[in-house]
Amino acid sequence: MQAIIVDHVGGPEVMQLAERPMPTPPGPGEVLVRNHFSGVNYIDTYFRSGLYPAQLPATLGNEASGIVSDIGPDVTEVQVGDHVAYLASQDAYAQYAKTKASRVAKLDTELPLDTAAAVLLQGLTAHTLVTRAHAVSPGDWVLVHAGAGGTGRLLIQLCRHFGATVITTVSSEEKAQIARAAGAHHTIIYTEESVPDAVHMIVPEGVHAVFDGVGKATFEGSLQSLRVEGSMVSFGNSSGAVPPVHLFELSQKNLKLLRPRLYGYLITDEDHRRHVSEVFRLLKEKVIDIHIFNSYDLADAARAHSDLEGRKTTGKLLLRLF
Ligand code: NDP
Fold first, then answer.
1. Ligand 1 centroid to 146 CA: how many Å?
2. Ligand 1 centre and the CA of 30: distance in Å?
3. Where is the Enoyl reductase (ER) domain (predicted)?
């Protein structure tokens, strides 16, 4: 099969397309999936660059959709031929991968394989953040950074659905239009304006919660944008890792600070099943929708990473595997 191989950390050029042996047959509780699409997520760039430690050589890729091609003993959840999507463990940039049967999401005919791969990881991230990190409720004011991005668009749609007024940041007017189309009430071009100044012009008390996946460049401004007892949800580092925080900074406004990781909200199969079925329901009811920026050939995975890190993209990037 064809797969991406990274044998040393670095820029996108370290991702090489290679012929690899097929995975071994699925064992008890496992399924083999013929992947059709793999979602490209910002986290993949961290494992490639070395920001997060990866076991090398690595394939990369944390989600995929495809067709079950083999099942191990005792598997009852799915059958050969079923369409599925699943969260992967650094092995989804490949034509085949094995995963746990208890963690695959079976797709019905309403959910195409490209949409399923596009919504899974970012949809679960956005859903767990707005229901568990800070439970968004009617009347909330929220600030969502990078609102035209994959996770940002979904956060805007979900915050609005749960009754919040949404302020979002983007780097260009073109991206502001995409964020407004997703439902943002106010947009700030954070490459040109001070975020806390702009936020306080819109809502003088500040926001109830900030969902910040940008990290280093926005962290301080996010704290300044919060109202008393606000929640700072720092969930990513697209501009670099957030430097160590002085706890005393939180005491000025009795702020809450969270640094959640998606997998920490999906520890049990029941948590996983519940959030996946909610995300799929919200998609079918058109509360959230998917904007696919591009589906790249597997051979162009490096270009997908450089487009994502170059801030050229909006919405979701996919790799096409067949
Ligand atoms: P996005 O589609 O949001 O792409 C990243 C965006 O970040 C860019 O488009 C850009 O938007 C913005 N950005 C701001 N500063 C920079 C910079 N210096 N370099 C590059 N981009 C920058 O990616 P994802 O939706 O995949 O991920 C968004 C964030 O969510 C990431 O930090 C990711 O790690 C995090 N995440 C965390 C999870 C968790 O479990 N904690 C799970 C999933 C995602 P603009 O041009 O508008 O500034």
1. 7
2. 32
3. 10-319
